[in-house]
Specification:
Shape: globular
CATH architecture: Trefoil
Number of domains: 1
Order of helices and strands: HEEEEEEEEEEH
Pfam families: FGF
Largest sheet: 6 strands, antiparallel
Radius of gyration: 21 Å
Keywords: Growth factor, Secreted, Signal
Structural class: alpha+beta
Main location: secreted
Family: Belongs to the heparin-binding growth factors family.
InterPro entries: Fibroblast_GF_fam (IPR002209), IL1/FGF (IPR008996)
CATH topology: Trefoil (Acidic Fibroblast Growth Factor, subunit A)
Number of helices: 2
CATH class: Mainly Beta
Length: about 190
C-alpha cells in the first residue's frame, strides 16, 4: 500500500512538471489587470513598447499590466495594456518589450516571498529575475538574486479600483499621538 501511494504522488508531480513546462492551448488561462509596484523605485513597472522601466505613475496608462496566468503553477506572461508588448528576457538577461509573448523568454514564474513581496523569475533562464535599479532601469537577469530588493514587487489594483477583500480601514498613528503618549508616560513617572 505504501508503494502505491508513493507511486501515484510521483506520477502526479511528473504530470504537473510536464504540464507547466509545455502548457497546451486548451488550458483555461486567467487574465488579470494590475500594476507592479517596484520596491526600489517606489513607482510602477511600465512597458513603453520595446523599453521597460519601473518609473510609472500610479494609474498611468503604461503602468497598467495585463497578466495572463496558465492553469497550473504560477507561470505568467505580462503585457502592457497600452503598448500591447510583453515583458521578456533575452539570452543576455536583458529585459525588453516584445509584441509576441508566446516565446518562452516572455514567461515568468511568480515566487511569493516571506516579506509579502513577489519576485518574478524567468521560466527559461533559471535563477534570473526581473529587476530594476534605483533609477528604474532594467537590471540584467544574470546579476539578480531573490534576496535583492531590486527584484521585489507588490501587485496593486489600478488607481481608483478597490479590491473588495482589501477594503479594511486602518487608523494611522500621527506624531501628535506619539508625543501625547510620551507626555502621559512622563507625567506618571513624576
Amino acid at each position: 500500500l505504501y508503494f502505491e501511494s508513493q507511486q501515484s504522488s510521483a506520477d502526479f508531480r511528473f504530470y504537473i512538471e510536464n504540464h507547466t513546462r509545455n502548457p497546451d492551448d486548451l488550458s483555461r488561462k486567467q487574465v488579470r489587470i494590475y500594476q507592479l509596484y517596484s520596491r526600489t523605485t517606489g513607482k510602477h513597472v511600465q512597458i513603453l513598447g520595446k523599453k521597460v522601466n519601473a518609473n510609472g505613475d500610479d494609474g498611468g496608462k503604461y503602468a497598467l499590466l495585463i497578466v495572463e496566468t496558465e492553469t497550473f503553477g504560477s507561470h505568467v506572461r505580462i503585457k502592457g495594456k497600452e503598448s500591447e508588448h510583453y515583458i521578456c528576457m533575452n539570452e543576455k538577461g536583458k529585459i525588453v518589450g516584445m509584441p509576441d509573448g508566446r516565446k518562452q523568454e516572455c514567461v515568468f514564474i511568480e515566487e511569493f516571498l516571506e516579506n509579502n513581496y513577489t519576485a518574478l523569475v524567468s521560466a527559461k533562464y533559471k535563477g534570473w529575475y526581473l529587476g530594476f535599479n534605483r533609477k528604474g532601469r532594467p537590471k540584467k537577469g544574470s546579476r539578480t538574486t531573490q534576496r535583492q530588493q531590486e527584484v521585489h514587487f507588490m501587485k496593486r489594483q489600478p488607481k481608483g479600483k478597490v479590491n473588495p477583500v482589501q477594503e479594511f480601514r486602518f487608523t494611522t498613528v500621527t506624531k501628535r499621538t506619539r508625543r501625547a503618549r510620551r507626555l502621559k508616560s512622563n507625567a506618571k513617572r513624576n
